[in-house]
Write a structure and sequence with these properties.
The chain is α/β, with parallel strands linked by helices. It is built from twelve helices and eight strands. The protein has an eight-stranded mixed sheet, sandwiched between helices. Helix 5 packs across helix 7. It is globular, with a radius of gyration of 18 Å.
Length: 341
């Protein structure tokens, strides 16, 4: 990233980034060996989750559900709030990781936050990873898991008419792609999509895709590599690159947010414009001085608190949840893992 761009970062967000670069020159994603990158990611997640589990009030249950035909089962983690109202809303949650990183522990803190702050059931889906499993393995796994959730609404005890799908970065891509599959194959009805800084364009041609080159988090080189692994030489369809889906009509209301220092900035703005043109009620937030997944690196920063306040309020409204006194003081998500896409 050019010096002028680095200087434009929110100072609260810049400090933890500089600390990360001190430990890992070039950032974790600059580590060439994918297995080592995954090991470090898992180590950071484990360290963060130890503190989260000590404080969380929701319960969790790990299950395996049927995967796509002929494929392995899909791992899920079910989060239930301490006080659970019958037939409450629910959130289907998909973690990020650039299609090549992460598991059910990867964004555990965020899933806990959503479950506890909203008081809703959260079902977090795992999925197969590239390059070992390129597209469509990821979206097929997520869609199979969503269908299982829909089929089991009575036993899970949630209101199927108030079901949102949530994901950040690669998880944002998969939230959109899974919603498109649900539309196309008469899957579970979704009331809302929340896609945080989603990874939706394989072309790398936008100004922001050229600007963000060496910030130390998800930058141009890392993104090109991830898309190559994900597509495995194939031309993407609309489920792989949702920005280029031929038809976006029929999707539920959608929320998108992204920072000005994020490589995905311009593709996310373009996606919001396409959704609006397709008649989809769309909420778009662009945060100045914010880089990719910055709230995971600096969960206590004012910008992180603000982003989460906006997100939680949007989910409350979309899922018709009565606000609580704590809704006006939403905190950062506490996930300092710092290695997300």
């Amino acid at each position: 990233m050019k010096t002028s761009q680095l200087d434009s970062l929110d100072p609260e967000l810049r400090a933890p980034l500089e600390e990360l670069l001190g430990n890992y020159p070039g950032g974790v994603y600059a580590i060439e060996d994918l297995a080592e990158r995954r090991r470090i990611d898992a180590l950071h997640a484990a360290q963060m989750n130890e503190a989260v589990r000590a404080a969380q009030t929701c319960s969790t249950e790990d299950v395996q559900v049927p995967g796509p035909t002929g494929c392995a089962p899909v791992p899920l983690r079910i989060y239930r709030p301490r006080v659970f109202q019958p037939a409450s809303p629910a959130v289907f949650f998909i973690h990020g990781g650039g299609m090549c990183l992460g598991d059910l522990d990867y964004e555990h803190a965020t899933a806990v936050k959503i479950c506890e702050e909203l008081g809703v059931l959260v079902v977090s889906s795992g999925y197969r990873k590239a390059p070992e499993h390129p597209h469509p393995a990821q979206v097929d796994d997520c869609y199979a898991a969503l269908c299982w959730m829909g089929d089991n609404a009575p036993s899970l005890d949630f209101d199927p008419e108030r079901l949102a799908i949530f994901g950040g970065s690669a998880g944002g891509n998969l939230a959109l792609a899974t919603a498109l599959k649900a539309r196309d194959f008469a899957g579970p009805a979704l009331a809302y999509i929340m896609a945080l800084y989603p990874m939706v364009d394989h072309r790398h041609t936008t100004p922001s895709a050229h600007q963000i080159t060496d910030i130390g988090v998800w930058d141009r080189k890392t993104n090109i590599e991830a898309w190559e692994w994900f597509l495995a030489g194939k031309t993407p369809d609309g489920y792989a690159a949702p920005l280029h889906a031929e038809d976006l009509t029929g999707l539920p209301p959608t929320f998108i947010d992204v920072g000005t220092a994020d490589a995905f900035r311009d593709e996310d703005i373009a996606l919001a414009q396409r959704l609006l043109a397709a008649g989809i009620p769309t909420e778009l937030h662009i945060y100045p001085g914010v880089y990719h997944a910055a709230e995971h690196y600096a969960p206590d920063a004012e910008a992180a608190h603000h982003m989460w306040t906006v997100r939680i309020r949007a989910l409350r409204k979309a899922l018709r949840i009565q606000p609580t006194p704590t809704d006006t003081d939403s905190q950062g998500n506490g996930n300092g893992n710092g290695h997300h896409n």
